[in-house]
Amino acid sequence: MNSPWKGKAKATNQAYDDLRPTITYRHLLSNNLGVRDPLRVVALCDSDAFYAACERVRLGLDPSVPIVVQQWESLIAISYPARKFGISRMDKIKDAKKKCPDLLAVHVATYKEGEKEPGYWDDVDTRTHKVSLDLYRRESNKIISMFKESLPTGEIEKASIDEAFIDFTRPVREKLLERYPYLAQVPADAPDGTDSPLPPPPPINWDGLGSVVPVSPSEETDGTSELSDEVDDNTTWHDVALSIAAELMKKIREDIHSKLGYTTSAGIARNKFIAKLSASYKKPNSQTILRNDAIPNYLRPLAFQKIRFLGGKLGDALAKEYDVSTVGDLLTVSLEEIQSKFGENALWVYEILRGIDHNEVKEKSALFKSMLASKNLPTPITQSSDGHQWIRVLAAELALRLNDARESMPTLWPKAIVLHARKGYETSRSKQATFPFVRNVTVDVIATAADKLWKELTGDAKTINVTSVQLAFTGLEKAEMGQKSIEGFFKTRDIQQSPSLKRPREEYELPASVEDTSLAPPKSSNVEAVSFQCSRCHKVISLREEQVTDASEVAQRLATLRLEHDDFHFARDLAHSNESPLVPVPRSSSSRGVRRKVEPKGIAKFFTKK
Ligand code: TTP
Ligand code: CA
Ligand code: CA
């Protein structure tokens, strides 16, 4: 230890070598190291009891009020005060009220026939109303905007209605150089010039920065207790980076709390996988830091089938092949071994087990996004003429969502409008048409377009049996036009309605109300929907009729489907298949997209569906 240029301590465990890289001046000073940057810091921030918090804030209630959000008879969000009474999502509303007589149950807002806006009605009934998640989408957008404003050099990726990944690498790097200016200059006596390791890092005071996951599970720390010498000894510049990110994260979370009223919980670590994994370490209103050194003991006891993408067939196959269940068990399997059984791309599995994840934090482009409003009908539509009422309800939701999104992206335009209807036990059928380029997207404009599709779909059948209807905008994009045409397009009336038009162009942001399926965790899916459209292949994935029971069940099953479908893409990406993806025929009106069969290879076969 006589020279500060000596590499720091060797990794204690060969499996985790990647967790203690030598960090050099080149690493620190190069501008674009991306996902392999040894100083990379990522956070996942999730809102606490989100829908319940939104309703509490809307009603101006004290945070101590036990409040739940109800959808029909099910509970979809439970505030932390209500959880103290032992209430969970599994409870029916009646049982919840038995557990807590003072419970405030708010039914989620609904669209009602003939109403343009969703509301809180006394007579909610699944036969006549449709759930609206608009409030939650709007509040979610406010939170995302705060992340963006606070971190102009950070990358923000909305991951679900109440979660976002934040790449802190850049903002942290700026602070690091500001605080430790000596790092900006490679010392003249550095043995390998820019490739010399950084000098030893300063000690870190974690006080008030959150829960620091202990390196050995037996140690308990809450961010206030003194950390053992062992930790101090092993402090790395990456830990310093984590602590700076924790400071920034804390400030943003406090800001969100004081300005919007929401508490959040965050995980801060070296990559998305580990950040997400640690975000729920302590809830609510807290943040967790998972240092690289703490990763091995954190991962080892984990049941690997709980890891995203290892939950399905691949996880089953791994468990069976090696007769094991935890991450630790699988560490004995060599890369060669796992690749010989599961293909080249099993490298991904090998790495995840070792806390390595090279997925980028990237704001999703608005391209190929869709907005979908759907209603699962408790009483089927049997007469073609009765479809209209539901179409208007769905049109009202799409109108509101598109116009909301256009507040921040005024030229957002859907390429097409698609109507899906499920008839009895058949699979869903759909019709689509290009969406007219009109100035004001009103409920009427949408309903008129949708009515036409409905007629095409139902033909002149005397009796029909439609059990679910869905209306979607697809191919949402910013319309390409010059500033002149934008002004002409929106004319004075609209400009007055939409003050955001005055904002500079760069500020147009991705409307979070535009759903995407890619990384969204399952839970936040619209519990009303019985299908979703994949943002990548545009395919509409629907639940089978027998899978549709009650609302909460639908959400779960749909979530599973979504995951399976994402997994499918994931596997395809892994397999680098050169065959074209499943793309529905993009003609003006088509039913049941034509698909090409793809033979899965290697690891991919564990993700394909029958
Ligand atoms: P979660 O983040 O899973 O849960 P939560 O925010 O309610 O609670 P926690 O503090 O534990 O994070 O989901 C976010 C919102 O998504 C939730 O408030 C309601 C909605 N949701 C459903 O509608 N159905 C579901 O099955 C789940 C899990 C969530
Ligand atoms: Ca949450
Ligand atoms: Ca969540």
From TrEMBL:
Acidic residues bias spans: 219-231
Keywords for this protein: DNA damage, DNA repair, Metal-binding, Nucleus, Transferase, Zinc, Zinc-finger
Transmembrane segments: none
Protein name: DNA polymerase eta
Annotated UmuC domain residues: 42-311
Native organism: Rhizopogon vinicolor AM-OR11-026
GO terms for biological process, alphabetical: DNA repair; error-free translesion synthesis; error-prone translesion synthesis; mitotic sister chromatid cohesion; response to radiation
A family per Pfam: POLH-Rev1_HhH
Subcellular location: Nucleus
Keyword Calcium included in the entry's annotation: no
InterPro entries xref list: DNA/RNA_pol_sf (IPR043502), DNA_pol_Y-fam_lit_finger_sf (IPR036775), DNA_pol_Y-fam_little_finger (IPR017961), DNA_polymerase_eta (IPR052230), Rev_trsase/Diguanyl_cyclase (IPR043128), UBZ3 (IPR041298), UmuC (IPR001126)
GO cellular component: nucleus; replication fork; site of double-strand break
Domain of life: Eukaryota
Signal peptide: none
